[in-house]
Amino acid sequence: MTALPSSDARVVVLGGGLVGTLAAAALAPSVREVLILEHDSALPDTPSPRARLPQAAHAHMLWAGGADAMEELLPGVTGDWLAVGAHRIPIPNGMVSFSAAGWFRRSWADTHYLIGASRNLIDWAVRERVLRLPNVRVQTGTKVCGLEGDAAHVLGVAVRDTQGERRLIAADLVVDATGRNSKSTQWLRDIGGPQIRETVVDAGVRYASRKYWAPQGTETGWPVIHIPADPGQGEPGIVATIISIENGQWHVSLSGTRGAEPCADEDLYEEFARRARHPLVAEFLARAEPAGEVSVFSRTANRRRHFEQARLPDGFIAVGDAATSLNPVYGHGMSAAALGAVALREQARRTPVLAPGFASKAQHAIARPAAAAWMLAVGQDRFYPGAIGRRPTPADRLVARYVHRLNHAAIGNALVVRKLTDVMAMRRPAHVLAHPGVLLAAALGPSTPQLDGPALTPKEREVLARPPLRTLGAAPANPAK
User: Fold this and answer.
1) Do residues 98 and 278 make contact, with C-beta atoms less than 8 angstroms apart?
2) Phi/psi at 444 (nearest 5 deg)?
3) Nearest in space to 318 (alpha carbons), one of 224, 142, 182, 154
4) Distances from the Cα of 371 to the Cαs of 35, 64, 148, 159, 458, in angstroms?
5) Is the dihedral of CA 46, 50, 56, 61 positive or negative?
6) Would the pTM count as exceeding 0.90?
7) pLDDT confidence tier of residue 6, bands split at 50, 70 and 90
8) Which CATH number fits domain 10-60+119-200+300-379: 3.50.50.60, 3.40.50.720, 3.30.360.10, 3.30.1330.30?
9) Using 50, 70 and 90 to split pLDDT, how confident is the model at 1?
10) Which residues contact 69 (CB under 8 A, 6 or more apart)?
11) In this structure, are strands 10-14 and 33-37 parallel, antiparallel, or unpaired?
């Protein structure tokens, strides 16, 4: 039996992407109608690319916290992903990672997971479930031109359809889910609303991504291979990641901060991977066949629009990248948006959407998981050479030293591994890292010796033992050291 809505409100969501559909799922149980306005002329009914989603060409990690949140909003969506080829990768043992303090072991109990899939597949499964909700519908081919209302209350949006006709769509609540390109800060000023303060931290990250056919025998059960940068080295950082996705493919993303940006040249792609702190990713790529071209993406600045601090008119909220956009290298954008959607749903359960002050309360609730992801990202990005934004303070440097110490302890301490993964997977807030037991473990350090190379399984070593399919200019390093 479908639950009756708690109010007669009509919600208009701007944007039919992942964040917009999650917001629709969050609000649908509490309102009469949710109308999603989408600029594209059509939304794919298969896991296909969208022209206005360039970041889908790059590898995405959907951490356990975000996947759990989506499952809570849309029960069964995890099964939808897995049924069409996504991977549920156990964490920590399903990840080969070279932290600034050394190689992580893979002998702990698996306590978390992540979903390995293309962004197109993740979005599609969510969209399919949301658009089956009886009070949710989508209107495509619609360009939003601005907000209607005044400084006290937003009453709807002005739009133009495919024929260029301008009209008003009335709404009791407008949800901006238009992403990094959101114009709502200007739209609010246009109706006499507040100036929204912005904070930007930009390490100048550029992405270059490519799909490869997984070598025979690695189509399933393959770990994430992740070579992160070390911001403490005082030089540009390079990150290299392989993650298994559907259709027997690896999705590979290489990125570099300002001064070490990758390019779109296919002949240089694997050479750039070798410039990471360890050549393991490059060695695996040399034994895999490319399945597509190199795609680049540079709009990676961390940008926080502080809507929650402004005196917003009733009837308006901003979600996802429209409020807080993150450097995608940390893989927290989707998870933060999903957790924000859960917070939005809970607020709508407590406070009727038509009640004065609902939007302000909802904006504060949405901001909390976004702020947690923001701190994880900017806490690293501020340290790279040429980063734009506030420079690291003595407190920032103290926190960075503590995090390095935690990574050092995690090499040989199960408690620290679990707590770090709690935070990285967005299942717990960062303050769990200040628990007395974690502080003690960090002080004592690892209880086992540091590994002298990546902890690879026999299957993974067998792949490296195969002859390379391509020869690079530089002599290969020993991938097991």
Assistant:
1) yes
2) -75, -30
3) 182
4) 28, 18, 29, 31, 41
5) negative
6) yes
7) low
8) 3.50.50.60
9) very low
10) 335, 338, 339, 341, 342
11) parallel
CA atoms within 13 A on the CB side of 181: 10
241 has pLDDT over 80: yes
* C-alpha span between 90 and 109 (Å, rounded): 10
Measured between alpha carbons, how far apart are the two ends of the chain, in Å?
59
CB 13 within 8 A of CB 37: yes
Q: Please name the amino acid found at residue 214.
A: A
Please name the helix (run of DSSP H) or strand (run of DSSP E) that holds residue 336, with its range, or none: helix 333-350
- Tell me which residue of 257, 251, 256 sits closest to 271, measured CA to CA: 256
Burial pattern 405-442, b for ≥16 Cβ within 10 A else e, equals bbbbbbbbbbbbbbbbbbbbbbbbebeebeeeebeebb
Q: Provide mean pLDDT across the span 339-359.
A: 97
Residue written as token pair 């989707």: 334
Complete edge-to-edge strand list for the sheet that includes strand 198-201:
198-201, 302-305, 324-325
Amino acid identity, position 203? A
pLDDT digits (tens, 9 = 90+) for 422-450: 999 999 999 999 999 999 999 999 988 88
Q: Distance between CA 267 and CA 393 in Å, rounded?
A: 41
Closest among 111, 34, 196 to 424, alpha carbons compared: 111
Best CA proximity match to 24, nearest among 10, 35, 8, 39: 35
Residue-wise pLDDT tens digits, 103-133: 999 999 999 999 999 999 999 999 999 999 9
For residue 418 the two structure tokens come to: 């679990």
- Across 58-205, the runs of DSSP E, i.e. the strands, are 61-63, 87-91, 95-99, 102-103, 112-116, 136-139, 143-149, 154-160, 166-170, 173-176, 198-201
Give me the torsion for CA of 92, 334, 25, 154, rounded to 10°. Answer: 150
Q: Give the long-range contacts of residues 418-421, CB within 8 A, separation 24 or more.
A: 418/108, 418/111, 421/91, 421/92, 421/111, 421/112
Summarize pLDDT for 273-329 with one digit per residue, the tens.
999 999 999 999 999 999 999 999 999 999 999 999 999 999 999 999 999 999 998
Domain boundaries, the chain: 10-60+119-200+300-379, 206-297+457-465, 394-444
Residue ranges of alpha helices (H) inside 384-457 are 394-410, 414-424, 436-444
